[in-house]
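Progress report, Aim 2. The chain analyzed during this reporting quarter is listed below.
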Amino acid sequence: MSKTPIEIDMLVDSALWSGLEADLTRALLAAAAAEGAAGTVCLFLGADEALARLNAEFRGKEGPTNVLSFPAGEGAAPGFLGDIALAAETIAREAAEQGKTIESHAAHMAVHGFLHLLGYDHIVDVDAAVMEDRERVILASLGIADPYAE
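Predicted structure tokens for the chain:
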């Protein structure tokens, strides 16, 4: 039996995530494989209310956001990559607005969050282009269409 490149500790804190756990696991495993990353990731699947609290506490921003990433800092356990938190209602709403399935949009947000753990960012246009290209490649490996296509 082969060992997967990452271990995923998943905390499901909203019934709205029911049935999506396997899709999100596949997305994170694909991202880790594509990036050659190994270690442990904690994935929190919460409701908007929980993400709004995290967003206020750690980013000083009001309201929920679709995904938050907390890369492991100094002093973290060896191999710990960080935490990713996803907001159920926000992701469901965005998927509907964008004409996507919740499965594909949630997978995209998980991959996006994972790439943040590895140091990718999208504040500067050139960095955003690199990150989006990596997302496209990873999502395509899962059979998910380009999330940035017009």
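The beta strands are 6-12, 39-46, 67-71, 80-87. Helices lie at 21-35, 48-59, 88-98, 102-117, 125-141. These observations will guide the mutagenesis work planned for the next reporting period.
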